[in-house]
Amino acid sequence: MEHVIGCKTSYEAWKCLQERFSSVSMVRVNQLKTELHTAQKGGDSVDKFLMRPKGIRDQLVYAGEKVTDNDFIIAVFSGLPADFEMIKTVILVRDFPMSIKDFRAQLLVAEGSIESRMHSLSSSMSAMVVQGQRLGLQGFQGFEHGESSNSQRSQVSLSND
Hints:
Blueprint: H1 10-22, H2 26-38, H3 46-62, H4 69-77, H5 85-92, H6 100-160
């Protein structure tokens, strides 16, 4: 309310409020730029992760800052885990610009490939664990038989003495 004190008309009050709240401070712009370059994918899907930098980019554009598709792509790269190194390299060495739509599509393909490898690795590990358990159980059973044979031999040896 204190922002419109002294205004004589609703138009003056509106203009005063508009000037006060429509401009984005340089502090906020710098904060948004930092957020854009430090957003991390973490455990989110590619689609969910991309929503954060896109929202930040939209706010920067609204504030009058120019954020090119290439700037956006570079910022997103800094938030991707090491699993995406190959796709980062492929995209960075391109001689022509990439649209955000194509970039998203490439990341989704890479994510699918990573998930497939992880699933395959997980299946292999599970199979190894099951196989190890079987071998371990058989070895344990053999060990039990071996011990009982040894104790029988000891008893036979003692009875012969």
